[in-house]
Amino acid sequence: MSTDLESEPAQEHSEGRIPFDAICTGCQQIDVRWARFEEVGLEASVDLEAIEPAACTSFKHVCYECGSATWWNPVRVLTGVIRSGQEEA
Ligand SMILES: [Zn+2]
Questions:
Q1: What's the rounded Cα separation, in Å, for the pair 61 and 63?
Q2: Which residues are placed with Cβ below 5 angstroms of ligand 1, an ion?
Q3: How far apart are CA 15 and CA 26, in angstroms?
Q4: Cα separations (Å) of 29 from 22, 58, 72, 80?
């Protein structure tokens, strides 16, 4: 499985990242954050439709409210964002 990285086909996902609605553990705001699969404990081959946010691990990302990098908990997977052309939030 791990050797797949070398012969990866055309990337379907934006640089191997997933858009989440996520909640900042510092200030409790919910905002869109992109996390890498490995950051939330997922295999890159996982079906995006099958991801359960509650089963994902927290990931570290910058929070502008908190003014530093904080931990975010995935709340919802934004599969619609992926389908509509990977727009930035
Ligand atoms: Zn925050």
A1: 6
A2: 24, 26-27, 63, 65-66
A3: 27
A4: 8, 15, 10, 21
Which pLDDT score, from 0 to 100, does residue 48 have? 85
Q: How many helices (H) and strands (E) does the chain have?
A: 1, 4
Cα 52 to Cα 75: distance, rounded to the nearest angstrom: 9
Work out the mean pLDDT of the chain and round it to a whole number: 82
Distance 77 CA to ligand 1 centre (A): 19
Q: How confident is the model at residue 1 (pLDDT cuts 50, 70, 90)?
A: very low
Give me the residue spans of the domains in the chain: 4-88
Residue type, 83: R
